[in-house]
Each structure stands twice: as C-alpha cells, then as structure tokens.
C-alpha cells in the first residue's frame, strides 16, 4: 500500500536508523524527513539514502506553528513517526526552555496540524509518538516499568517528554486522532552524538581523555541496540493497536561503572593497548543533579502481543558500535563542532 510518511528528527541518532529502515524496506512508501538540524541532527547520517527516489528531506522547526501548518496544508501524511526532540538530560538541566519548545510545543503543533488536515479521513492514518522510559521516573533496586507505571518524571527532559505523551493521549481521547506511543530505554549504536555516555566514553578513550563517571557510577540503565529499537518502531507502526502504549527495552541492565569498565576492555583490545590502559582514564566527577537511580523495562506487552524481542546481544552491539566509531573518525570530527566544544568545557571542565 502506498503511503506518505513524515518522520520528524530523522537526521538524529535513532531517527536516521528508522528513516533508513523505512526507505529501504518499504519502496512503496514515500518517506519525508523533517528536521531542524540542531547540533544533534546531521544529514551525513543519511548520505547512503539521500538520493533514493522514495526519500526527501525538509529542514524546519516543529516548534514553529506557522511552518508546521503550512507543511501539512501542502501535503497530506498517512503517518507521522515523531522522533524530533531535544534529547539530552544534561542539556535540559542547563537550558530547559529549548526542551519545552521542541518537545511540548513542537509535539502539540504536529498533533494540531495532523488533526486539522486529517479531519474525517483518519482511517488507516497514524500519529506515532516516540518517547522514553524516563517518564516513569526512577526505580530502586527492584521492579520494572510497565505500561501501567504512574508517570513521575524528574528532569526537565523527562518532564517535557511526559508532557508530550499526555498531549498525545489527550488528542486521542478528546479529538479521536489515531495515536500510538512507545517508551524505550537507553539506546546505543552508530551515529549517536558523542555527548551521551557510550559514544562519549568511546571518543574519550580513543583520544586518551578522562572518562567522566557521575557520582559513584552506581546508577543503572537498560541498554538497547538502536537497530532493535528501529525494528520495534517498524512493528508498532504497522501492527500496534491504536490508542495503546508499548514499552521497549533491552533486558540488559548495567551499572554505569561496570559498563565503562567493559568498554575500556573492548577498547584496549581494539586499539592493541595493554589490558588495563583505558581503565586508567576513568574519572569520578560530580553527580548529575536529580540523577535517576535505575531504569528497567518490562517488555512483556510488546513481546507477547507483537512478538518483538531484542535480537542483538550487548557484546555484539558494543563491538559493532566501537568499530563504527573507530572507523568513522571523519564523522566524529564533523560533529565535534564549536557547539560541542563549548558544551563539553561547560559541562566537564568548569566543574
Ligand atoms: P537526537 O538528539 O540524536 O536527535 C534528535 C533529532 O531531532 C535531531 O536530528 C534534531 O536536529 C531534531 N530536532 C530537535 N529539535 C527539533 C525541532 N524543534 N524541530 C525539528 N527537529 C528537531 O535524539 P535521539 O537519541 O535520536 O532520540 C530521538 C527520539 O527518541 C527523541 O524523541 C527521544 O526522546 C527518544 N528516545 C531516545 C532514547 C535514547 O536513548 N537516545 C531512548 C528513548 C527515547
Ligand atoms: P546518558 O547517556 O546521558 O543517558 P540518560 O541520562 O538519558 O540515561 O547517561 C547514561 C548514564 O550515564 C546516566 O546515568 C548518566 C551517566 N553519565 C556519566 O556517568 N558520565 C557522562 O559523562 C554521561 C554523559 C553520563
């Protein structure tokens, strides 16, 4: 079936993997990638598909209401897969307003435009909102986030994503627009901007810089390989039930310090360093304000109802990820721009 699908945030980390997957797997779809190209958006992530006949790119800001209105009045979209967001907790602590604009206002602008231009013809259409497990707050040593867990966001980032989730559900209940939401745990893999833990550690180890570990490194995250998330998004877009929420996780919990030590061992091996060399770079730094202790996902709904399970082991995924960063120094050089340098020195060097 022919469809025109708007992917927002397609030039970012997860969005680029989703856009590539849809362009390659569904030649009958036309994929329109809408992205503002913030510091985190990079068209180089999509250079291998940019000339495909079923792909096009539009530069624009979802927080710009007039622009979004215009976009939807020019073209009708059968589906929206909404990934565009400000996505980094640390940046949300130092500058929350951008998160309010992009994540809340931006989402509402899309919902309004989708509603207005779909009025009376919603059949088969879908607004798919991609969210995070961070909306559920912080777990202690026990327990898992289910789709029924009450929202308890604690950072400006997670609060802005939680607000967006509520807006999406409100537009479903109030205006009847067909929506689906998924809340995923921490992704890792190629093309992730090197301010998030795994690519930042890989890059710092590569360049012999200190690897900053917040607090005692005891916080726990669940890690999912980005291609597995893209596969879950594909499945939910096509088979998810309208109005439903699906949690997506890797069944793969790691304390930060253990993860960093594992990465150090992999880097020693890949860089032919003496075992133990990279671990000497581990540096404990001041903890993040309001640092959530633990995230962990109960996958049973998506696994039982849609048959999705993570397929890439952590060992395999980390190996692929490290290799990708080591083989793509040009990409790294390109994204380690003026913005990154000033962010990095503010975040880590002025502490
Ligand atoms: P990212 O920061 O790598 O990419 C975000 C993209 O959105 C960038 O290309 C950026 O240019 C674009 N963007 C930002 N503001 C915009 C605006 N106002 N208008 C248009 N485009 C804009 O983020 P990511 O890690 O790929 O995350 C994508 C989505 O998945 C986000 O909604 C995030 O909340 C969610 N998510 C991420 C993770 C994770 O571990 N990275 C986990 C769960 C959910
Ligand atoms: P991050 O990749 O920013 O993802 P999130 O905050 O969305 O989970 O951080 C992952 C974990 O790693 C989190 O507990 C914070 C910690 N962390 C560090 O210890 N050092 C760092 O330099 C960064 C960026 C994160």
Helix content: 40-55%
Tell me which CATH architecture of the domain at 3-189 and 222-251 and 293-313 and 343-349 applies here.
Answer: 3-Layer(aba) Sandwich
| Strand element count | 12
Bound molecules: nicotinamide-adenine-dinucleotide, thymidine-5'-diphosphate
CATH class category of the domain at 3-189 and 222-251 and 293-313 and 343-349: Alpha Beta
Using the alpha-carbon principal axes, give the shape. globular
The N- and C-terminal alpha carbons lie at a distance of 54 Å
CATH topology of the domain at 3-189 and 222-251 and 293-313 and 343-349: Rossmann fold
**Whole-angstrom Rg:** 20 Å
Structural class: alpha/beta
Largest beta sheet: strand ordering = 3-2-1-4-5-6-10
Mean pLDDT, to the nearest integer, reads 96
- What is the CATH superfamily of the domain at 3-189 and 222-251 and 293-313 and 343-349? NAD(P)-binding Rossmann-like Domain
SSE arrangement, N to C: EHEEHEHHEHEEHEEHEEHEHHHH
């Amino acid at each position: 079936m022919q469809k025109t699908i708007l992917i927002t945030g397609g030039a970012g980390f997860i969005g680029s993997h989703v856009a590539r997957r849809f362009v390659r797997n569904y030649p009958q779809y036309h994929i329109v990638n809408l992205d503002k190209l913030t510091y985190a958006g990079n068209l180089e992530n999509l250079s291998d598909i940019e000339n495909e006949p079923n792909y096009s790119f539009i530069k624009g800001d979802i927080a710009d209401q007039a622009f979004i209105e215009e976009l939807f009045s020019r073209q009708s979209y059968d589906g929206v897969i909404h990934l565009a967001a400000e996505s980094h907790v640390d940046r949300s602590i130092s500058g929350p307003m951008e998160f309010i604009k992009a994540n809340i206002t931006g989402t509402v602008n899309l919902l309004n435009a989708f509603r207005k231009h779909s009025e009376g013809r919603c059949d088969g259409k879908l607004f798919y909102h991609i969210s995070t497990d961070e909306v559920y707050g912080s777990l202690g040593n026990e327990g898992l986030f289910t789709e029924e867990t009450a929202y308890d966001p604690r950072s400006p980032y997670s609060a802005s994503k939680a607000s967006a989730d509520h807006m999406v559900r409100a537009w479903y209940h109030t205006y009847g627009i067909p929506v689906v939401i998924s809340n995923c745990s921490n992704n890792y893999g190629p093309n992730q901007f090197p301010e998030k833990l795994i690519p930042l550690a890989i890059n710092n180890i590569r360049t012999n810089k200190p690897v900053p570990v917040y607090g005692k490194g005891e916080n726990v995250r669940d890690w999912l390989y980005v291609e597995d998330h893209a596969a879950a998004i594909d499945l939910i877009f096509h088979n998810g039930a309208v109005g439903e929420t699906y949690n997506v996780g890797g069944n793969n919990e790691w304390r930060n310090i253990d993860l960093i030590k594992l990465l150090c061992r992999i880097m020693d091996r890949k860089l032919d360093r003496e075992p133990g060399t990279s671990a000497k770079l581990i540096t404990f730094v001041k903890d993040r304000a309001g640092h959530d202790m633990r995230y962990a996902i109960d996958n049973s709904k998506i696994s039982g109802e849609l048959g999705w399970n993570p397929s890439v082991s952590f060992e395999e995924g980390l190996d692929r990820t490290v290799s990708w960063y080591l083989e793509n120094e040009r990409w790294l050089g390109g994204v380690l721009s003026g913005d990154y340098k000033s962010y990095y020195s503010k975040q880590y060097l002025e502490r």
